[in-house]
Write a structure and sequence with these properties.
This protein is an alpha/beta fold and about 170 residues long. Helix content is about 40%, strand content about 25%. The chain is globular and about 40 Å long.
Length: about 170
């Protein structure tokens, strides 16, 4: 049985760039410690957009160009990037179908006991990927470490945590 840690979109644009928040900046030390101390495989996702972001559905609903591939804002926070050992999973939308495929494959190789999610933003990409994981690995224990997550706002962070709890995802502080 294996345990997985998914570090969702800990990228510069979500920390102190185009969509950064003080809450995102405050969780960095917690996420670093979580990655350093985790006993199991650690995977990173990376929000990835192209130069035509504003023409996409997301761009029309969130008209703030961010995480444009190849820019500083797209890069994973340097202290976390230094800890990354696996290829980052680039995702073009909130939930990653590639992550779901990887989780399924890992589970076939060695059953997944638990998947812990940390990162940004709780109310968009963390919740999307946690629900996706729940759909693909319904018997794995899913955990979200709230002390290692931040939302677009503190209120939307709390709302997302409550929604995930209702979906049988364990919330730890």
């Amino acid at each position: 049985m294996q345990n997985l840690l998914i570090v969702v979109d800990m990228q510069n644009d979500f920390i102190d760039g185009a969509l950064g928040t003080k809450e995102a900046q405050q969780i960095i030390p917690n996420v670093i410690q979580k990655v350093k101390n985790f006993q199991g495989k650690v995977l990173f996702t990376r929000d990835t957009h192209g130069k035509h972001y504003m023409d996409t559905q997301e761009g029309k609903n969130l008209p703030v160009p961010h995480c444009i591939k190849g820019t500083k804002g797209w890069e994973i926070h340097p202290q976390l990037e230094a800890l990354r050992t696996e290829k980052a999973i680039d995702k073009v939308t909130f939930g990653s179908s590639e992550l779901a495929s990887i989780l399924t494959k890992l589970n076939e190789e060695d059953p997944v006991n638990s998947i812990t999610f940390v990162g940004l933003c709780t109310d968009i990409c963390v919740i999307s990927n946690a629900i996706l994981a729940k759909a693909f690995l319904p018997e794995a224990t899913l955990i979200v470490d709230a002390s290692c997550c931040a939302g677009v706002t503190p209120e939307s962070h709390q709302t997302a945590l409550q929604a995930m709890k209702a979906c049988q995802i364990q919330i730890v502080e």
